[in-house]
């Protein structure tokens, strides 16, 4: 995945995002925040369905790619498509990590690490407040 996505970008003003999102969703998705481990939604949920972006409703992850990484955040080994998420180099907090953002609205979702299970070996560690869950898909 690259720094650019092939889908059309959704652009809104800060005021529009603040009107649409809860304060916690805004802090995480627009200000690149994170929720404390084991406190956000979905970290311990394994229902069948589809996880969508809280900002634009774009599909992000399927429940059949979710696994218990023991880290306290929802974790997935694969996004729904290469365009669903985009990667950015993140050097904040004295670390070098790969940030994951929504490919449609650029919402901060979390980070991806190379310590996940087969078949990809990836662990998409995602803030639960950056997503909404659609059961049964």
Automatic annotation (TrEMBL):
It comes from Rhizobium leguminosarum bv. viciae. Zn(2+) binds at residues 53, 56, 102, 105. Its cofactor is Zn(2+). GO terms for cellular component: cytoplasm. NCBIfam families: peptide-methionine (R)-S-oxide reductase MsrB. GO terms for biological process: protein repair; response to oxidative stress. Binds 1 zinc ion per subunit. The zinc ion is important for the structural integrity of the protein. Pfam families: SelR. Residues 14-136 form the MsrB domain. Its EC number is 1.8.4.12. GO terms for molecular function: peptide-methionine (R)-S-oxide reductase activity; zinc ion binding. It is an enzyme of class 1 (oxidoreductase). The active site is at residue 125. This is Peptide methionine sulfoxide reductase MsrB. Belongs to the MsrB Met sulfoxide reductase family. It catalyses: L-methionyl-[protein] + [thioredoxin]-disulfide + H2O = L-methionyl-(R)-S-oxide-[protein] + [thioredoxin]-dithiol. Keywords: Metal-binding, Oxidoreductase, Zinc.
């Amino acid at each position: 995945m690259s720094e650019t996505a092939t889908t059309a970008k959704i652009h809104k003003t800060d005021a529009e995002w603040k009107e649409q999102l809860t304060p916690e969703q805004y802090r995480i998705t627009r200000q690149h925040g994170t929720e404390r481990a084991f406190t956000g939604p979905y970290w311990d949920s394994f229902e069948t369905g589809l996880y969508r972006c809280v900002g634009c409703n774009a599909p992000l992850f399927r429940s059949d790619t979710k696994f218990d990484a023991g880290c306290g955040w929802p974790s997935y080994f694969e996004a729904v498509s290469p365009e669903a998420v985009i990667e950015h180099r993140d050097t904040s907090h004295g670390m070098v990590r790969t940030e994951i953002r929504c490919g449609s609205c650029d919402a901060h979702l979390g980070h991806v690490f190379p310590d996940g299970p087969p078949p990809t070996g990836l662990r998409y560690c995602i803030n639960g407040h950056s997503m909404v869950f659609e059961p049964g898909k």
